[in-house]
Each structure stands twice: as C-alpha cells, then as structure tokens.
Backbone:
C-alpha cells in the first residue's frame, strides 16, 4: 500500500529564495506549455499537442535557458508537464460526460505551490535514518534542507514533493509499505448518519458534536477580508508590504480552519475504526447537496423572479461545507483499509423517513428536524438515530447479499 507523509521543512533565508525561484520557473514552464497547446489548436488546424511532444523539447529548453530552467531537475519538469497533461485529460473527460468543462487556466506564481519529484534519487534525495535527529532532504539546485521529521517514515520512499503554504514549506513523501496488521476484531457493527446539528449520530444513539470551525472564525475572517478589501487593486509588483501582510492574514485564517477540520476528521474516524468492525454510512452526493437554488421566473412579470429560498439555501450550503463530510469519509475509508475494517456506503434515500419498527415510509414520519414519529405504528425516536439504524440495516443487507 502507499502512504503519504507530510513534514515541515526549515530552510534558511537563502534556501527560501531559491525555493521560490524553483516554483516560479516551474510555473513558467507550465504556462508556456499551456500556451503552446492553445496556439497549436487555434492556429495550426486544430492540432493537438501531447505530453510526449512537449517532453521531447525539454532538453532544448534547458540548454537555451541555463540560468533558470537548466538548473532544476529534469524529472521534476517532466512531472510539471504531466500535471498539465492530466488537466487536459480531465477537461476532455468532463466534456465527454456532459459536465462543466473547465478549460485549464494559466497559473499565477501564488497559485502554483507544488513541485513533484517522481522518484527518490532523481533530482532529490530523502536523507534519513530511524534514529537520526538531523533529517534532511536534498533538492537539485537548492541543496540539503532541514526537515522536522516528527514521526518515522516506514517503507521505501517513492515520490517527493515540495509544497508552499503561506510562508511555510513542506515536504510530502509517498512510501510503499506492506499491508499493516489488522486491528483485533471487536464484534461491533455501526451505522452513522452525518448531519449539521450533530456532526454524526451512530446507531447506538451517540451524537458527535459539530465543531463548526468556519463559523467560529467567521468574525476574524470577516475583519481580515474587510481590511484586505481597503487596498486598491493594483499589479502584483506594485503591491505594498501592508497589502501582502493583509493577504497572508486571510490565508492564515483559512489555513487554520482547514487544519482544525482535518484534525477533527482524523480523530473522529480513528475512534470509529478502533471500536467497530463494520461501518455503514450514506453515499452522499455532496456536490449536488451544496448547489445553489435554481431561479424561479415569474410568469406574471416579465424579467421578474419568484422567491426561491436562495438565502436559506446559501446558509445551509455553508454549513455543509464547514462540516467537511467529504474529507471525513475519505479519511475514514483510508483508516479502515489500514486497520482491516470494512466500510459500506448505502443509498441515502428515505433513511430518515422509514420507521425502523414497522418499515412504514412517509414524509410525515419526520415532523421536525430532530423528531421522528411514525404515523403508522406511533414509534418515536430521534430522527438522526433512526437514520443511522436504517443505514446500518441497509449496510448489513448489502454486505450479506450473495454476489450475482
């Protein structure tokens, strides 16, 4: 299996400058390759340029521009071209499936924050021993950079990436490992119902509170964004130091919320994986759930629109994105795989409207957000607990179903 590790780097002031130049030059290579593809399609009878054609030009580009492109790793530049090729592949896939295409865009220097080295030892070297406190990573053109390795790296390092987040620099490793020993069985199965009032409710009636990290930071974030909005819009090279600090403050607040959300997701998923052998959850389509309300034209007034609840839906969308269900389910699946647990996704339709006692399904069974009252048999319970019970039952049915 492949596992990722992320460590904080501690470059010197000079190394920080060189790392910034490395990102800038790879960004320039990315934008240049994108421009070449655009020009070839527009002006050369819709000619398509592939990765292999652009990779073959790297030797000539490096020889022509020794001071910039020539000093970086050849493999990392190939990885940057593959990154563009993947963006075009995703674009054509969305066009074919009828989704919003999203044509690949040019990247600004501040929006290009990662350089990948596809193989350890080719332009980079992870220099670490299990008991060596002075861990370093060597990058071609930069040198040896100190790394704060807060946990050991198990397995053989496959790829190395350098990532900038604000003023901090990180190294991201992927290591190939043998499958870990599964956790001892507990004999417990559980269904979970994700929500807004409670982050999740399990079939045993336990409610995990929703931390609402973005809502708690909303006041500070609003003040920081208002301070940033006071600066006039000018070219990047004309911006003042105060402007840059205002941008960094907004980014730092968003970064803190993101780290808090990840921390909560990891801890919650770890608790579930340790306590249960089988975990069933709803197969939520979060992108569809968080879409804006469609406008309702007024048939009486030309050019007018009827109320469509857009303000309330916008607030619900913010709460859904703040909860971070997608990140949590991804982490839960990864941890369950490492621990030898089983995660089952079930159809979420009517899970909170079906009575677990008599099986009656009706919209009237849920008169309020929290209350469940079956109109068929009179069973009463918390609506989220009912949903978790139905999710568990559906998961067990799917698990025990015979293959076709």
Residues:
């Amino acid at each position: 299996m492949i596992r990722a590790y992320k460590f904080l780097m501690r470059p010197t002031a000079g190394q920080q400058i060189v790392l910034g130049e490395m990102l800038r030059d790879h960004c320039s290579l990315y934008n240049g390759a994108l421009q070449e593809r655009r020009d070839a399609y527009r002006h050369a009878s819709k000619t398509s340029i592939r990765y292999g054609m652009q990779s073959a030009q790297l030797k000539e580009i490096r020889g022509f521009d020794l001071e910039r492109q020539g000093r970086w790793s050849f493999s990392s530049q190939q990885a940057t071209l593959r990154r563009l090729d993947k963006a075009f592949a995703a674009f054509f896939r969305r066009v074919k499936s009828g989704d919003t295409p999203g044509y690949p865009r040019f990247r600004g220097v501040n929006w290009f924050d990662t350089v990948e080295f596809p193989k350890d030892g080719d332009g980079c070297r992870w220099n670490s021993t299990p008991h060596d406190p002075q861990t370093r990573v060597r990058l071609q053109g930069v040198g040896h950079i100190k790394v704060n390795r807060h946990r050991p790296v198990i397995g053989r390092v496959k790829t190395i990436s350098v990532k900038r987040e604000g003023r901090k620099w990180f190294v991201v490793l992927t290591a190939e490992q043998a499958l870990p020993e599964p956790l001892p069985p507990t004999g417990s199965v559980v269904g979970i119902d994700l929500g807004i009032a409670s982050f999740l409710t399990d079939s045993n009636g336990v409610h995990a509170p929703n931390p609402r990290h973005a809502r708690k930071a909303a006041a500070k974030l609003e003040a920081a964004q208002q301070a940033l909005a006071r600066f006039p819009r000018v070219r990047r090279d004309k911006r003042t130091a105060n402007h840059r600090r205002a941008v960094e403050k907004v980014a730092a607040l968003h970064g803190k919320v993101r780290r808090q959300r990840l921390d909560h997701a990891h801890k919650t998923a770890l608790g579930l994986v340790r306590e249960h052998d089988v975990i069933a959850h709803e197969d939520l389509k979060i992108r569809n759930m968080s879409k804006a309300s469609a406008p309702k034209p007024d048939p009486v007034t030309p050019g007018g629109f009827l109320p469509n609840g857009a303000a309330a839906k916008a607030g619900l969308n913010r709460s859904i994105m703040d909860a971070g269900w997608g990140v949590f389910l991804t982490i839960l699946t990864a941890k369950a795989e490492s621990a030898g647990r089983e995660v089952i996704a079930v159809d979420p339709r009517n899970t909170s409207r079906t009575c677990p006692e008599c099986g009656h399904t009706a919209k009237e069974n849920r008169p309020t957000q929290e209350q469940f009252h079956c109109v068929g048999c009179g069973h009463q319970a918390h609506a989220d607990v009912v949903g978790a019970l139905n999710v568990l039952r559906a998961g067990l049915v799917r698990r025990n179903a015979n293959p076709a």
Remarks:
- The first strand starts at residue 2 and ends at 10.
- The two ends are 29 Å apart (CA to CA).
- The chain has two domains: 2-176, 189-400.
